[in-house]
Design a protein that fits this description.
Blueprint: E1 2-6, H1 11-20, E2 25-29, E3 42-45, H2 47-55, H3 59-63, E4 77-80, H4 81-94, E5 98-100, E6 105-110, E7 115-119, E8 124-127, E9 129-132, H5 139-144, E10 152-164, E11 176-180, E12 183-189, E13 194-202, H6 209-214, H7 217-227, H8 233-240, E14 249-253, E15 261-262, E16 265-267, H9 282-299, H10 302-333, H11 342-345
Parallel strand pairs: 1-2, 1-9, 2-5, 9-16
Antiparallel strand pairs: 3-4, 6-7, 7-8, 10-13, 10-14, 11-12, 12-13, 15-16
Helix pairs in contact: 1-4, 1-9, 2-9, 9-10
The structure holds flavin-adenine dinucleotide (FAD).
GO molecular function: FAD binding; monooxygenase activity
Protein name: 2-polyprenyl-6-methoxyphenol hydroxylase
Keywords: Monooxygenase, Oxidoreductase
């Protein structure tokens, strides 16, 4: 079998590694160039996500590049997004997957033999299976179902960056939160002067691209310092010590996508379900999806496998999208987020068991 995996973020390369482990030939088609200077901020990989990486033999590799080179005391690993993407792509390539950049999917059709994917540069590729790992604004999702829902705006602006030469309280690699009356601040420190942080500011209407572009660094810094004026002084120190862009982004989520597969095409990761960043679960969900999809393809004929993958995943991921929506609303309403997250964090995939 030859799988065309669309998207080289988290879900795509994780799927490539998982499919290579069951002997599938894989081509990963990523829209962005190989030299990508805009790969974003950082993510926390949760214990369940690390366990799914372990099934793929990748947990140790990934941890080598986490902040402070380890998991924090609560079992989460802070990772630069660019670093996570790179490690997963390298792992996929090392296992024999082809990684092709500047390949932006625009259309696909199923044929008697499988699938043909068409790209923005006019090229096309044929395969037996098309796996859409192309993120929250997925093209594959709308190819599978032109009536599929699109992402929903959640009225929070995300910002963040990487700061150095500054200290903030807390154990190395442990996520810490600071609530202030006008916003929400989170960070993890290395214990050696490096602090990775994010901030969420309530933001009524979704900012347009032009509005985002107009938010320059000086303006955003001033706004952040004003938002956190009543917070402990180290918050302002961290903001001032930031050596990167501030990555202002609107928040989105996506649940209730009714159709995850059609013929030999399927979606996973944010393309199928996206939780707000507040849940800290998007990457981990994507990695879990990849492992479960590969298990299903290992044990069942292709189309049955796609249906079984959805059956095994839907309740869990929809639950986590709802959890993320509640957690984001709690930030806006100054309420307490859900407790009792064992069902999210303790989830483990038994690779040896048949689906
Ligand atoms: C600000 C922010 C903070 C977050 N924090 C966390 C966190 O702490 N923990 C966590 O687990 N998750 C977090 N997330 C969510 C996490 O980033 C996503 O859930 C995760 O990246 C999903 O992986 P994915 O591969 O499905 O999508 P993506 O990582 O978005 O990757 C999709 C890839 O597909 C490519 N692509 C898109 N369209 C096409 C096309 N037409 N053709 C070819 N390629 C295409 C894109 O260029 C991209 O490389 C955060 C998200 C945001 C925005």
């Amino acid at each position: 079998m030859h799988a065309l995996v669309i998207g080289g973020g988290v879900a795509g390369p994780a799927t490539a590694v998982a499919l290579r482990s069951i002997g599938v030939d894989v081509t990963v088609c990523e829209a962005r160039p190989a030299e990508d200077k805009d790969a974003g901020l950082w993510v926390m990989v949760a214990p369940n996500g690390l366990a799914a990486l372990d099934v793929l033999g990748l947990e140790e590799t990934v941890l080598r590049e986490s902040l402070a080179g380890a998991v924090g005391p609560s079992g989460f690993a802070p990772m630069r997004r660019a670093g996570l993407y790179r490690l997963l792509r390298e792992a996929a390539a090392a296992r024999g997957a082809r990684i092709e950049h500047d390949r932006k999917l625009i259309a696909a059709e199923t044929t008697a033999d499988g699938v043909v994917a068409r790209f923005a540069d006019g090229s096309a590729l044929a395969g037996d299976l098309l796996v859409g790992c192309d993120g929250i604004h997925s093209r594959t999702r709308s190819i599978i179902d032109p009536a599929a829902p699109t992402a929903r705006y959640v009225p929070l602006l995300n910002l963040g960056g990487f700061a150095s030469g500054v200290e903030a309280p807390g154990e190395a690699a442990q996520l810490q939160f600071v609530r202030s009356p006008k916003g929400f601040f989170g960070y993890a420190g290395s214990g050696a002067g490096e602090v990775w942080w994010f901030a969420n500011l309530p933001w009524g209407a979704e900012p347009s691209r032009a509005e985002l572009a107009a938010m320059d660094r000086a303006w955003l810094t001033e706004r952040l310092l004003d938002t956190f004026a009543e917070a402990p002084g180290y918050v302002a120190d961290v903001i001032r010590a930031t050596y990167t862009d501030l990555y202002a982004l609107p928040t989105h989520d996506l649940g209730g996508v009714p159709t995850w597969s059609r013929d030999d095409m399927v979606i996973l990761g944010d393309a199928a379900h996206a939780t707000t960043p507040t849940s800290g679960q998007g990457s981990s969900m994507a990695i879990e999806d990849a492992v479960v999809l590969a298990k299903c393809l290992r044990d069942l004929p292709r189309r049955q496998a796609l249906a079984r993958y959805e059956e095994l995943r839907r309740e869990r991921v929809e639950g986590i999208v709802a959890l993320g929506a509640r957690a984001s609303a709690a930030k806006l309403n100054d309420a307490a987020p859900d407790g009792g997250l064992d069902w999210v964090l303790d989830y483990r995939i038994d690779w040896a068991a048949r689906v």
